[in-house]
Amino acid sequence: PEAKAVFSVIGMTCSACAGSVEKAIKRLPGIREAVVDVLNNKAQVLFNPTFIQEETIKETIEDVGFEATLIE
Ligand code: 9UX
Asked: What value of ipTM does the predicted structure carry?
């Protein structure tokens, strides 16, 4: 199974910020794809819910230093 989650990410000011968020998400188990858009302040993630849930992805974004809210 595959699930999709979209997070609002507050505080990213450059594309390197987005890159570090993307990298952190992709290091997690069960992630198929992560696309972080600094212009729209959004992170879209495709994942296998057997291995990871939205809350862990949210916490990972916040560990990098940004505020994340699940919006879809
Ligand atoms: Mo560069 Mo983006 O230090 O916040 S990674 S500004």
From this structure: 0.82
Domain that holds residue 42: 3-70
- Which tens digit of pLDDT belongs to each residue from 3-33? 999 999 999 999 999 999 999 999 999 999 9
Number of domains in the chain: 1
Atom of ligand 1 nearest to the CA of 16: 5
CATH of the domain at 14: 3.30.70.100
Best residue among 10, 15, 17, 21 to mutate for probing ligand 1's pocket (most ligand atoms within 8 Å of CB) is 17
Other C-beta atoms closer than 10 Å to the C-beta of 54 total 16
**Cβ of 64 below 6 Å from ligand 1:** no
Distant-in-sequence, close-in-space partners of 23: CB < 8 Å, separation ≥ 6: none
The pTM score is 0.95
Hey, what are 13's tokens? Answer: 């000011």
